[in-house]
Amino acid sequence: MARLDTEVRDLLEKFVCVRLVQMKGVDLSLFQFDSDLTWCAFLMNGDGAIYGRYGTKCGQGALAKVSIPGFRKALERALDLHSKWPAVRPALEKKKGSAPLWRFPEAIPAHNGKFGGAPGRRNCIHCHNVLGGERQSFFQQKKPLPDTMVWTYPQPETVGLEIEPDEGNRVKVVWPGSAADKAGVQVGDVIETMAGQPILSIADIQFILHNTPEKAEVALEVKRGGASAKATLSLSGPWRKEDISWRTTTWALRPGFRSDALSPEEKRALGFAPDKLALKLRGVGNNSPAKSAGFKQDDVLLSVNGLDAPWTETEFLAYLRQKCVAGSEVPVVLWRSGKRIQEKLPVP
Amino acid sequence: MRRILALGTAAALLVPAALALPSPKNDRLRNELNDGQVATAWVYEDLPTALAVAKQAKKPVAVVFR
To answer: Which residue is closest to B64 within chain A, CA to CA?
Structure first.
C-alpha cells in the first residue's frame, strides 16, 4: 500500500479509497473476482456501478501481470469513464456479473459457522475461502463441479491473447491458430471493449471470459493505428481448460498430494509408454486421506478408474472433481519401487 | 458572484464528507496494517461510508482488497 501511495497518489487522490482486509460481509453480487488474488482493486461509481477491475495472478508469478504503470492506466481509464457518467452506465451493467450462489461468504454452507462472530484475526474470511467454501459445499452435496468452478477467471491466453501488463489492454502477442488469430486480432491492437464492456485491465478480460459459456461469440472493439476495428472471438470446445496447478485454491481440489506429469525422457527411462498416464506424487500431506490410505511420495499414478490417458495434474484433478463423488474411493494403479500395485484413492 | 456562492456551498457540503473519514476503527486498522506512512486518505472496512462520501463528492471509488 505504501508503494501505491508513493507512485499512484496523484491519481488515487481523485478517488475515495477504501481498503477491505477480509471478505466477511462482502456482497458477492457486487464483488466477484479471482479468489487466488492476494491483491485486487475495483474502480467504481459511488452508486455501485463498476468501471473496472485490476489484479491478475498467473503461473509465471504473482507479479508477472501486474505493474504500477498498468494500475495507473486502469485508474486513468476509470477516471475517464467517471467523467462520462451517467452516459456510460448501460455499458457497465454486465460488469457486476450474474447472481452468486451465495450472496455473502459467511452464508456459504460449507463454512457452517466456521467464521462466526465479529471479524478478527482468527476468524477472517480470506479471498481464497470464498471459492474454497463454494467448492467444498459442492463436495458436501456430492455434486460435480461445473467447469466455471474448476477453471476460474481464464487468462487471455485461453483465447490466444497476450496482453502487455504495463498497458492492460494492448495486445502483445496473438497465438497462431487461436480464436483471437482467427478473429483477425493483431499485435498492437488496443482492446477498448469486449462483449460491450469497457476494458481497463487484464482482470476485466478475465472477468468476461469467466462469465462466457463454452460456446459463444465475443465481440471486440479495438483501436488499430488510430482507427477503430471490430473482431469477433468464436469460442467453442475446451477453450477455458488451462493449467490451474499454480493456483493456491487448487490445493482443495487435490486428494492430499501434488503430482507432476513425467517427461517423455522420464517415462522412457522407467519403461512407461509415452502416450499413457504417469503422474509422480510429491508432497503427500501428513494428515491427508491419501497418506492414511498408504500413498507415498514418488509413487507414480498409472491409471485412475481404469483410465490411463496422459493427463496433466489439472486434467487429473478435473476428472476427480467432475466425475467422482466426494467421499468415494477410486481404484488406481500405482508404480512403486519398480512394481505395479493397486490401491484405492479416497476422494476427500 | 452567484457562481462563487455556488462553489462555496458545494465546498461546505464536501467538508463534512472529508471529515467523516477518520474514526477510531479506521485509525486502529491503519496502525495494525502498518499503513502509518500512507498519506492518501483511506477508509478501512467501511464501504457504505466510502460510497456515500463518493456520491457526495462526485468522486469515483477505488476499493482495494488486501
So the answer is: A41
Which chain A residues contact residue B44 at CB under 8 A? 18-19, 21
Whether residue B22 is contained in a domain is answered as yes
Which positions in chain A touch B66 (Cβ < 8 Å)?
1, 19-21, 38-40
CB half-sphere exposure, A134, CA atoms < 13 A:
20
Is residue B30 a part of any domain in this protein? yes
Q: For residue B59, give the nearest of A5, A14, A23 by CB distance.
A: A14
- Using CB atoms within 10 Å of the CB of residue A87, give its burial: 0 to 12 exposed, 13 to 18 middle, 19+ buried: exposed
> Is position B66 within any domain?
no
Q: How far apart are CA B58 and CA A26, in angstroms?
A: 23
A188/A140 Cα distance (integer angstroms): 47
Higher pLDDT, A116 or B66: B66
User: What ipTM, to 2 d.p.?
Assistant: 0.94
Q: Phi, psi at residue A41, to the nearest 5°?
A: -130, 145
Closest partner residue to B63 among A13, A22, A44, by Cβ? A44
pLDDT in the model for residue B39? 61
Range of the domain at B16: 2-57
B43 to chain A: closest CA residue: A18
Q: How many domains does chain B have?
A: 1
In chain A, the percentage of residues whose pLDDT exceeds 90 is 93
Q: Which of B35, B47, B63 minimises the CB distance to A1?
A: B35
In a domain, B63, yes or no: no
> Which residues have a Cβ under 8 Å from the Cβ of B23 and sit 6 or more positions away?
B46
Q: Could you tell me the three cell numbers for A70?
A: 498498468
